[in-house]
Specification:
The protein has helices spanning about 5-55, 60-75, 90-95, 100-130, 145-165, 170-185, 200-210, 215-225, 235-245, 255-270, 270-280, 290-305, 305-315, 320-325, 330-340, 350-360, 365-390, 400-425, 430-450, 455-485, 490-500, 505-520, 525-540, 545-560, 570-575, 580-585, 590-609. By secondary structure, the protein is mostly helical. The protein folds into 2 domains: about 5-250, no CATH class; about 250-450 and about 485-609, no CATH class. It is globular.
Length: about 600
């Protein structure tokens, strides 16, 4: 018996290492596959741009092929979103609990992922078998694209098992598989008549999944499926069809391209030149380094379009310097997070792309409205910095020659923003084409800076994984939005607004209250997809300009990235700097007040004009 224990221990160690190697190999293979697909997407759209503007022709089916490739990218990168920041988990409750209670929450969270994986796998196969017909432009069977989510679901289940075995979590894994399997099997056999709208059990199931710490997209899929047992008017195959339909928009190709442009801009060193230029303009003012951080956030907004990307960039670039110059670490981290909000407001903005996808609002008009809103928010933040960091003195003022040199060095980075904003607004190119041109432009800058091929591939891989997480969230939210529409949640909100008077002021008060509450617990992308289609018709019926309301919606929800308990931007900054989220949330107050004040001004302008 004494010799059996070391043998068991060795066997467990071998199992853990083998599972870890297999998981790493699977993630590497999927990441490379997603990167290759993204390369193909960029080449395809750039070829379309050349054919359209140089040769004044085109090829039938290029847009549909791009959409199919995007679904393939999302499916290939889907398993990569199981862990890390891309999973968009709210695991604060699990971290606060200890022992058996925390372990049970993790079992439930993994069980939710098991249900989501089974829906994608079995539902994807069922949808592909039940569909007929051919794509009129590609000449391929329509069922082909519905097999992509099935492969993604299989990869998700495989990676979940391997990662848990790597941590010696055999029993918790078994319990999660049993729990997820029982829930999945029971839904197809139960018919519960609770006399309530199916969206209510959906919301309850989603809330429980979020509290357990399951990935947000998995929660949406699982809760949509659970609602079937309560009379929801959709089937498992319909969930997959709705999800794929939610991903099947050419506009969504702009998301990975904008992410790619930001990655290449940073890789080329052009982003660092933006920092130098910003410092030459405002670095000498009181709180000069803090003002430089803010201005760089404004300038970098025209490159990345992603608040998460800018939060990570600024946290690694500015936070150490702010602390070294005497700024309190928590206040410096809070400033970085508050400034990164601007990336999803100032164009190009992925948030506005998602909103345009969900509501069919014109992207160009939204980006112009976002530019005004972003500059207004930056002005309020500058005032907050002056009061909150009044003790910090600025550096010596830059000479006119230094500013000129810094401005010239930063011109390549500004060129990217001009391509996007003016290209879209003037109608020269579509949003997706502008994003592809921006990505290619930034890629050329990275190549000219003599970056290695490995670093370029890594940028493709990271951008593809981030795009897959966003795309999966968009697809998973589609069946949820369908059920909310069936249950006429927009009508409920409209009736509540009528009780408050029914005018523009009442609608804005109610909408801002709903969005601020939603921002406390939801990712911005998910909240846009769920509340955009619900609230926009109510706002239009009250006489509010839809573009202005769309801008207010995005600004409102971006504030949620700074508020507990889910504040994604705070968690990103905390992860990079090592500061606890609780500390950052406390230090956020003056900057949060500035953003709320900007939101108030935007709301007043929407009513007055």
């Amino acid at each position: 018996m004494r010799q059996a224990v070391p043998a068991v221990t060795r066997a467990a160690t071998v199992t853990r290492r083998a599972a870890g190697r297999l998981a790493d190999g699977l993630e590497t293979a999927l990441g490379l596959l997603a990167a290759v697909i993204l390369m193909a997407m960029l080449a395809l759209v750039m070829a379309g741009v050349c054919l359209r503007y140089v040769f004044h022709t085109g090829v039938i089916g290029m847009e549909d092929l791009g959409i199919w490739l995007n679904i393939g990218l999302i499916s290939a990168g889907l398993p990569l979103t199981f862990s890390g920041p891309l999973s968009m988990r709210f695991d604060g409750l699990a971290k606060r609990l200890s022992g058996r209670a925390s372990g049970m929450l993790r079992v439930v969270a993994d069980g939710v992922s098991v249900v989501a994986g089974l829906i994608l796998l079995v539902g994807g196969i069922g949808a592909s078998l039940g569909l007929g017909g051919m794509s009129p432009t590609l000449g391929l069977p329509e069922w082909v694209r519905f097999t992509f989510p099935a492969f993604g679901g299989l990869g998700l289940l495989a990676l979940l098992c391997l990662r848990r075995l790597e941590r010696s979590a055999g029993w918790p894994l078994l319990l999660a598989l049993i729990f997820g399997g029982v829930v999945y099997g029971a839904v197809g056999r139960l018919a519960i008549d609770a006399g309530l709208p199916a969206s209510l059990p959906l919301v309850v199931a989603a809330s429980l999944g979020l509290l357990a710490g399951a990935p947000l997209a998995h929660v949406f899929l699982a809760s949509s499926y659970i609602a079937i047992a309560f009379g929801a008017l959709q089937t498992e195959q319909a969930i997959i069809v709705n999800s794929v339909a939610g991903m099947s928009k050419f506009l969504l190709l702009a998301i990975p391209f904008f992410l790619l442009a930001g990655a290449f801009l940073k890789l080329s060193g052009a982003a660092g030149k933006l920092v130098t230029f910003a410092a030459s303009l405002v670095g000498h003012y009181r709180g000069g380094l803090a003002q430089t951080t803010l201005l760089t956030g404004v300038l970098f907004s025209g490159a990345s379009g992603s608040s998460v990307a800018n939060a990570a960039f600024s946290a690694s670039t500015f936070h150490p310097e702010l602390v070294r110059h005497g700024y309190p670490p928590a206040r410096a981290g809070a400033l970085v997070a508050a400034s990164s909000v601007l990336d999803n407001v100032i164009p190009p903005s992925i948030a506005f792309l998602i909103l345009a996808t969900a509501t069919n609002l014109p992207v160009g008009a939204l980006l112009v409205g976002g530019l005004f809103a972003g500059l207004l928010m930056a002005a309020f933040l500058a005032v907050a910095i002056r009061f909150a960091m009044a003790a910090a003195s600025g550096g010596p003022p830059a000479s006119a020659t230094m500013r000129k040199r810094a401005g010239i060095a930063a011109l390549p980075a500004f060129g990217l923003g001009l391509i996007v904003v003016f290209g879209i607004r003037l109608g020269i190119v579509t949003t997706t084409e502008a994003a592809a041109l921006a990505a290619m432009y930034a890629l050329i800058l990275a190549v000219l800076s003599r970056r290695s091929g490995g670093s370029l591939v890594a940028a493709f891989r990271q951008s593809a994984a981030e795009a897959a997480a966003i795309g999966l969230l968009i697809g998973a939210a589609a069946p949820v939005a369908f059920l909310l529409a069936v249950d006429d949640i927009a009508g409920v909100v409209s009736q509540a607004a009528m009780m408050l008077g029914g005018g523009a002021v009442a609608v804005l008060l109610l909408a801002n209250a709903i969005l601020l509450l939603a921002g406390l617990v939801m990712d911005i992308g998910a909240a846009i997809l769920l509340f955009g289609p619900v609230l926009l018709p109510v706002a239009i019926s009250a006489g509010i300009d839809p573009i202005r309301f769309g801008v207010i919606l995005v600004v409102n929800l971006m504030i949620g990235g700074l508020t507990p308990p889910v504040g994604m931007l705070v968690f990103v900054v905390g992860g990079v700097t090592g500061l606890s989220p609780e500390t950052l949330f406390r230090a956020m107050r003056p900057f949060l007040l500035a953003h709320v004040a900007a939101l108030f001004v935007l709301s007043v302008l929407a009513v007055v004009f």
